[in-house]
Design goal:
Blueprint (H helix, E strand, L loop, with lengths): L20 E4 L1 H9 L5 H14 L3 E7 L18 H7 L6 E7 L18 E6 L4 H13 L3 E6 L7 H11 L6 E6 L6 H15 L4 E6 L6 H11 L3 E4 L13 H8 L7 H4 L2 H11 L5 H8 L5 H7 L8 H6 L4 E5 L4 E4 L4
Parallel strand pairs: 1-2, 1-8, 2-3, 3-4, 4-5, 5-6, 6-7
Antiparallel strand pairs: 9-10
Helix pairs in contact: 5-6, 6-7, 11-12
Amino acid sequence: MGLDYRVRCCPDGLYRNIRIKVLDCTIRDGGLCNAWRFDHALVGRVFNALVNAGIDYMEVGYRSAADEYDRDKVGPWRFCDEEDLARAVEPGRIRLSTMVDVGRIQPADIPKRADTVIDVVRIATYAHQMDEALRLLDHCLNAGYETFINVMAISTLPPDDVDRFLLRLAPSGVHNVAIVDSFGALFPYHVRYLVHKYMNYLGEGIKVGAHFHNNQQQAFANSIAAIDEGVDFVDATVFGMGRGAGNCPLELLLFYLDNPRYDVAPLLDLVEQFAGMREELRWGYQLPYAITGYYNMHPRQGIERMLRDDRYQVREMYEGLAGRLSDRQDGQGDVRLKITG
């Protein structure tokens, strides 16, 4: 056995998950930073870079009901109308996805697969919305789509509630179910447990994905943990773009995968433009986001804090939220969360 070609202190041939598929959600998740106001030329640049990098899926944005948002206040990728898609992407070069939010779209708003360039519909739902999510799922499957489900905010659910929604999804026909760390609260040891729970409940016929937020600088580490435990899909974004602390950076993910199917070089041509956007939109690790992640909260308080002049005076924020954690058993790591919103 030879040496690792890059890290000389290790032998080559160490385990890597070579089955993994990568889904880029830069435009969809990154649109939460700028209300989906990406021009068509930039979306086209991202599309071509992803194709040339060998990325498996591109999530172009959301589909939404026509009257759900004011089009003067959000950009085109909150709707993904066919005319906008035609100006930025091409069918057949990469699998194209849109996300739909339960409660913000009806089955009639989703065209048949034969009438769109979109290949995949990802349904974003909370556990308590599962009835409606399954109705959307049935429609999308019958319409010919590869169909995924992302159950959000699982870090707020007791284990029995996670068991319940997994049991409902197991016979549903869904193709992929993602572990979604909506609040950036999870650490790798949580991820390892959840990967095996999802796999055991869903069975071999349903793929397991992973979507992690970077509030506590764990999005990349959690993605690695999920990959090493055997997930089938992992999400990432160019330069980690996403609301608040952002997501797993796509470039780092490809470095880790070190798979000849993927080529990071085309993505590096995007970095200068996205770095400029980050200066303006301020996504990425910041202590207010880390605090909301630690306390297992929606990031809105961190986002609001980052708009203030005293954004880095965070001790008061940290101590003021401490009541969310109760019944800590010294040395046992047993923390039960009081979820208040």
